[in-house]
Model the fold of this input.
Amino acid sequence: MERTLAIIKPDAFAAGNAGKIISRIYQEGFRIVGMKKLFLSKVEAEGFYAVHRERPFFAELTDFMSRGPCVVMALEADNAIRRWRDVMGATNPAQAAAGTLRQEFGASIGENATHGSDAPETAAFEIAYFFAGVELL
Done:
C-alpha cells in the first residue's frame, strides 16, 4: 500500500464540490486514512509550497491557498500516487481528460480544484506537514 496527500483546494471547497470529490475518492477505491478541514495562513501555505518559492507563480499560489478553507487528506491504495494523479487529471483543466476532477471542477491552471503528491518523497513530506503519525488511521 502507498500513501499520497490530496487537497480539495479553496476554489472547489467554496463551490460546494468537496462532497463530490470525497465521494469520487471512495468510488476509485482509495481509503482515507486522515482528513482535516483547514484554513491555511499565508505562512502555512508558503511552508507547504516552499519547493516552488523561486517560481514566478509562488505568491499567486500561496495567496490562493490561503484565501479560504480546504480539505487535506492522506489517501491509501496500491499505487496511490499515480492513481490519484490520474483521477485528478492534468494541471491545466483545459487539457485534463474527460471525467477527471480537474476537468470537471477546475477553472484554470491556478484554480484547479485538487492537489496530489508527485512522488513518494513528496508524499512523505506533504502528509507529515499536515498530520502527526497518530492521526493516520
